[in-house]
Amino acid sequence: MINIIKKRFLFFAISISALLISIIFLLSAGLNIGMDFSGGSRLTVNFEQQVTIEELESELTSIGYGTAIVQKASSDDFIIRTAKLSAAEKESVKTDLAAVFGEFTEKGFEDIPPETAIGTARVAVFGLILAAIVVMAYITWAFRAMPKPLRYGVCAVIALLHDTLIVLGIFAILGLTLNLEVNLMFITGILAVIGYSVNNVVVIFDRIRENVKANPGASFEMIVNNSVNQTFSRSINTSLTTTITVLALILFIGSSIESFAWALLIGIIAGTFNSLFVATSLLVVWEKKEWRRFIDWLPMFKAKRAEY
Amino acid sequence: MTKNKSLYIVLSILMAVFLLASSIVFPLDKGLLGNLGVSLGRDLQGGTYLVYKADLSSVEEGTEDEIMKGVSNVISNRINPLGVTESSVEIQGNNQIVVEIPGVSLTDDQKASLGNTALLEFRELTTIDGEEKWIPATGTIDGETLALTSSYFKSNTSVQKDQFGKIYLTFEWDETGSELSKQITTRLMGKQLAIYENGEPLLTEDGRMIAPTIQSVITDKGQIDGLGLDVAMALSKQLNAGRLPVSLEVVYEETVTPTLGSDFVKLSLTAGIVGLLLIMLFMCLYYRMPGIVASLALIFYAILVLAIFKLIPVTLTLAGIGGFVLSIGMAIDANILIFERMKEELQMGRTLGAATESGFRRAWSAIRDSNITTMLVCVILFWVGSSTVEGAQVRGFSLTLFIGICVSMFTAITVSRSLLRVFVGTKLAKKTHLFTPYIEGKLKVNND
Q1: Which of A182, A237, A243, A255 to probe by mutation at the B interface, max B CB count within 10 Å?
Q2: With CB atoms 3.0 to 4.6 Å apart as the test, which of A35, A206, B272, B283 could cross-link to A40 if both were Cys?
Q3: A-interface mutation test, from B344, B370, B444, most A Cβ less than 10 A away
Q4: Are residues A18 and A158 in the same domain?
Q5: Three-state SS at A69
Q6: Whether the predicted model's global pTM rises above the 0.90 cut
Q7: What is the ipTM of this complex?
Q8: What is the per-residue pLDDT across B388-424, written as a single tens digit (0 to 9) for each?
């Protein structure tokens, strides 16, 4: 049996660095907020002639839509995203594109006024907060027979916040490189990650619950470590099968649900690491009240102690 | 023997369920049994989705519901002449109207005509501050000054063509309209009366303003000529459909052409099948015999879920399919949990029968608690999707994932378990290596 829990401070270090990097990117690069939350129009077109993204973007810039984003959809379609277009503006853009690039068909159009978008954003944020509270409450309840059940709930919620933050941080990077946007499908992905991440944590906690009952005298650290080891291959295998399906979604469906699929992929990786190493280690740290050691270790407190 | 008997009863029931579900599912477009097709969302089969917000600020308090019903009737009346087979117009909340037309992507003009207030106003020319202006022509009834508009038309306007091919729109006034018309045409005899729609003058085919000179007093019937055929037809339909009592604002709009949708159907079908096959391959290679059992259970799972989708019916959107594909990955989790438990039991030297039973029993609490948390998240997601106008995708995802989780718990504990029991007591059961993962040798010996 590998002593995983012994290396807990290494895992915290990895985890905290990942979180710090995420926060740095979130603050510096920011997120690429999609039209679901900011409002705007999305026009899907299919040209008869060969057209490149660059040509489309430069033409749109020349007629005053410098902020327009052009993406290639999975087939030969282009998605043009702009600020919200009025009916007249849409008509003039279409006329201009037809004049420059020849005939095209309008395959889809979506239009969200900013006021609608703000309402959606509010609901999405509220949904995330609600999910965290509900998960904490359920786990605390499910582990009510254990001593200090709230700990399990809190650790599960820390785990899901951890995963959410890392997904957000990586999306700040992907927003720059792949133009991935944060939209309603992304929120769906995040909530699925929350479900998934908690699912993983619960399986391991369940094993701890069982082992605590079976070995009344054993040290908590050893029980946690055994439980992680016993559930290790399950965690890896389930992550693998879920990753397979998510990869299939990314490869075959592509741009339309890419924000969703990428959020899931990153979340699954972060969630697997987190549930195996971080959430469990947190339980042990809490049990042994090891934050005292950490406070002692901090230089400013060291100095204070020396004074006394 | 009795145990075997009950096992075979369970297996036969499962087989019957499987056959029943398969005949509902296949062929996909209309099942053998029940003739049910998969109901596809607008992103997959194309369609138009419009959400309007009504401006109820000028409406008398207490009459809002009635007004909204009126608005929804008018919009339904306007959709009918567009020649679509299916459509729904629903009131959402207290001031929103949701229009959904599956399979048809409306043109910009058609969309504009749905929410149009389509009010014709009759205007007279006056001079204000030395400037000539068209202002609404008014009359007085019971001391109240009223403008003459098409709201006094009866719903029987029609487009006529005379023997010279000239097109005209005929209309008839109701009681109030007749009285106003009488007053106005008497007052303005010999002068022009222009016709405006939404603040813009109506124009003839060659672009001149329609402003006929009044030659006689008009009381009950009238006609407008000079319009092009298309314009006249559209106008007549809108006038007959009734006038919207309040103005509408589009708060969300989505149109998808059917071709774009069918691309997605093919792609997501491929994604689902590839995902399914890869998982089955992995399971068979890693868990061996139980892996084969899990693969069979997974096929059972997929068919059962699709049958449920058809029966409810669940409208599949792209995200809904995403939820289904993801649920395949998660459905296998219950099996993995059980097999890992079985592996431990087998390594402790238990027989296959004992290991199977205790594997299922001991994995259950983990399966239950982990799936319940995911279900709770699904419920929250469904709420998020229902609270926003563009949330159809989110609703679709949460619904398919929720159904998927419920079915996966059922298939893991019935199908996988019964199939594994078949091996118990056979010669195969003694070959433990067939039932434990490949890395078993390395992990063994841990009883500390």
Answers
A1: A237
A2: A35
A3: B370
A4: yes
A5: strand
A6: no
A7: 0.82
A8: 777 777 888 889 999 999 998 888 888 888 888 888 7
